[in-house]
Design brief:
It contains two helices and 15 strands. With 257 residues, it is mainly beta. It is globular and about 45 Å long.
Length: 257
């Protein structure tokens, strides 16, 4: 696996029309508009960039009320630069993925991919490929929405959770192993956490046979505090530097150096 693929891997409906959002029961979630987590990104012992997870807004997608979230990563080494952004729109009633956008600039090679996802029909469209329509799954999730969905799962230590919800069927099941509780220190502070190991059928940092682990706070928020992935070419790690719970909340932690 190359450095480019490792950095890029960090990243892991209804018919058109309608006059307004569909009214339905909103699902309780541990996040709000304005939430923002900022991370130092290290490859081995070397700091190579920064990353952010943000809840940008409440939006409307095909008449459905949706959370709009964004994961971005920028940095690299002196010989290779990465500037990636992954945006997801999730139905507020189900957390089903409705739209997924990958905007990647890796080593000067740019790529934009947009997926429109239709949970009711169990299909998705590749907008970047002349709206090619392909089969999907019930209750689909994409890379970004999965990180927010997992925050709503109980995560009992010792349990293994399996989900057939990734919007591309051949990538299922997604397996989440809940390994242990652990207290860790990162630039943003010291936290009690639950450690999980995600396994996805992909060549990225969550690949089968890989050793990626995520540290989530052991509370109702389930904030991602740390990510570590050990690979044949070295380790790729994220460490929380600062966080903010909502638009009106104060930022805790320091600026990224």
């Amino acid at each position: 696996m190359t450095t480019r693929r490792a950095l890029g891997a960090l990243l892991l409906g209804a018919a058109l029309g309608g006059a307004g959002p569909v009214a339905s029961q909103e699902r309780p979630v541990p996040f709000a508009v304005g939430e923002q987590f900022t991370y130092d990104v290290r490859f081995g012992a070397v700091r190579v960039g920064s990353a952010r997870m943000r809840v940008l807004e409440r939006d409307t997608v095909r008449a459905r009320d949706a959370w709009h979230v964004r994961f971005s990563l920028s940095g690299g080494t002196f010989f290779y630069k990465v500037d990636d952004a992954y945006e997801s729109w999730m139905d507020v009633t189900t957390l089903n993925a409705l739209r997924f956008v990958q905007d990647q600039d890796q080593g000067g090679r740019e790529r934009l991919r947009t997926f429109e996802i239709f949970p009711d029909r169990r299909v998705y469209r590749e907008v970047h490929r002349q709206n090619r329509e392909l089969p999907s799954v019930a209750d689909p999730l994409d890379d970004g929405s999965f990180l927010y969905f997992i925050r709503t799962v109980p995560l009992e230590v010792g349990r293994t959770y399996r989900f057939d919800r990734y919007f591309k069927p051949d990538r299922n099941p997604v397996v989440i192993r809940v390994l242990r509780r652990e207290r860790v220190q990162v630039p943003a502070g010291t936290f009690s956490t639950v450690v999980i190991q995600p396994v996805i059928k992909t060549s990225g940092i969550f690949a089968e046979g890989g050793q990626a682990e995520l540290w989530l706070t052991d509370d109702a928020k389930r904030m991602m505090v740390q990510l570590k992935s050990r690979m044949s070419i070295g380790s790729l790690n994220l460490f929380l530097r600062s966080y903010r719970w909502s638009t009106d909340a104060a930022t805790v932690g320091g600026p990224t150096p």
